[in-house]
């Protein structure tokens, strides 16, 4: 099994291509659609890089997987699906909970589906999935959002925003329906119970202290050295820490643009009567946020 990582510098996001060199079957995890908020302009550099890799290696894209409805970047899943017609999209079945919450936040049309039908596959907890010759297990890991999942391919676990590198810690839990207690339970009872040599591939890396990009660690390393949740930290301690830290974090700068696209499986809004597409930006939808320079560089933590 081959794993190729693509880093989007603008959002500090990792996209992964997992492939079988024998059959050339492949999946893509958490693709990015580039978006410039100042110009409100969508572009395709990130999708182009992934597409070029798939074509260069003559890979058969079977599935496009989302670990959750991202709050910091627009998903490139719809664009990839259009480019590779045989590919299907997949996400955890609890995406429906997130759709229900944000349908209200964005006052989406009454006929906006909240049953997850925008995605081709809704995965259940512990489901064993086949993507051509590739096999993986879906592991529900709620906390950052109620719909977060990890994907386990053999000894490789893709954690999305549930966990980051040990010197960064875990995902934040203050988005609607997030829960620090749930995140603690997800990590300690579902990730830390995997073999210590299980490789972990994270969804973001903000390169704290200016260190080089890093995105691969292990269960054993996380248990020993994760700065926010080492294996010996109690649930009460973590919940207090996470809740306090989240109260000081700034809102991700692409929160509203990202979520309304991502709950719709990466689809941009339909054009209005003037043939222009519009994103909705609610005013004072959530609590006021402090101007925290550290939080700006660690907006998804």
Automatic annotation (TrEMBL):
Under Pfam families, the record lists:
Lactamase_B (PF00753)
Q: Where is the Metallo-beta-lactamase domain?
A: 12-204
Keyword list (alphabetical) reads: Hydrolase, Metal-binding
- The kind of enzyme this is, by top-level EC class, is hydrolase
- From which residue to which does the signal peptide run? none
Please give a single GO biological process term from the UniProt record.
glutathione metabolic process
EC numbers for this chain:
3.-.-.-
Q: SMART domains under this entry? A: Lactamase_B
**One Gene Ontology MF term:** sulfur dioxygenase activity
Q: What is this protein called?
A: Beta-lactamase hydrolase-like protein
Q: Which gene encodes it?
A: blh
